[in-house]
Design a protein that fits this description.
By secondary structure, this protein is of the alpha/beta class. It folds into 2 domains: about 240 residues, TIM Barrel (Alpha-Beta Barrel), CATH 3.20.20.60; about 40 residues, no CATH class. About 50% of the residues lie in helices and about 15% in strands. The chain has an 8-stranded parallel beta barrel, surrounded by 9 helices. Helix 2 links the parallel strand 1 and strand 2.
Length: about 280
């Protein structure tokens, strides 16, 4: 029952006029820090999971890995958690079971994406009709299981998969609208790089939109306030914490190697016992 209530809560946050900012967690302690910092929800990231496990690529994260790590994050916090269900881990015939299993972790919602996961070579998208079918089945499954408010974030990777930028944007918008029509709560257009693209997307997508911010391809082009101004419903920060954590560990180890441990205190890089007590 608790996960059902959290799905409704997360859906309400998304549909609210205030933009929902969801940093991505990669383990229970990063999720706890997101919650303690005052954010209303936590996003899981298959990409961050792969780095956490020292896998060479995201597609090495198995469904079992993903479910277990998502469950750990859900159990660590009280705020709603959105899972990263990748491409659903199979074709339309497997999507219902995948959705049921992610719902079983207590996740309040999940991403479903239209790229062909784990394919070597250039990224490819699955057919639009197949993706629409997957989302329809995901929604039907959620309703059948008694959670009609399950948040489904229909993601399209068209902006990366299609070389011509103008064509890619048109395809991304068309797919986003079809995913919303099929039952997605909101549409996620990844690889959005400029404010002009944001403006076009928010004008032409007929429903709530997710945008990934703080990425190498858009970090210098727009910030949180820009996305709020254009009415983006939800902002994902897919790699902020995992990259920050790695850089922090690298810096600390470098100070130790150079026999400069006192610099850790100078730069306020260490948690105190009290800090950890409050966090844990």
């Amino acid at each position: 029952m608790e996960s059902l209530n959290k799905s409704k809560l997360l859906k309400d946050f998304i549909l609210d006029k205030e933009t929902l900012i969801m940093p991505n967690a990669f383990d229970p302690i990063s999720a706890r820090m997101i919650e303690n910092a005052g954010f209303k929800g936590v996003q899981c990231s298959g990409y961050s999971f792969s780095i956490r496990a020292a896998y060479s690529k995201e597609s090495e994260v198995t469904l079992e890995d993903n479910l277990e790590w998502t469950r750990q994050i859900v159990n660590a916090v009280d705020v709603p958690v959105m899972a990263d269900a990748e491409d659903g881990y199979g074709d339309a015939g497997t999507i219902s079971e995948t959705v049921r299993r992610f719902m079983g972790t207590g996740a309040a919602g999940m991403n479903l994406e239209d790229q062909i996961l784990g394919k070597s070579g250039p990224m490819e998208l699955i057919g639009q009709e197949l993706m629409v079918e997957k989302i329809m089945l995901a929604r039907e499954t959620a309703e059948f299981e008694g959670n009609p408010d399950l948040v489904i974030n229909g993601r399209t990777d068209a902006l990366k998969a299609i070389p011509d930028r103008e064509e890619a944007l048109n395809v991304a918008i068309e797919r986003a609208n079809s995913y919303l029509d099929a039952g997605a709560t909101l549409a996620f257009i990844v690889y959005t790089a400029t404010l002009e693209e944001i403006q076009t997307i928010t004008q032409e997508v007929k429903g709530p939109v997710t945008i990934a911010a703080g990425m190498p391809y858009n970090l210098q082009n727009f910030g949180i306030s820009d996305l709020e101004k254009y009415g983006v419903a939800r902002i994902s920060l897919p790699s902020l914490l995992i990259y920050s954590s790695l850089k922090g560990m690298e810096r600390a180890l470098s100070h130790v190697k150079m026999n400069e441990m006192e610099k850790l205190l100078e730069n306020d890089d260490l948690y105190s016992v009290d800090d950890l007590t409050n966090l844990l």
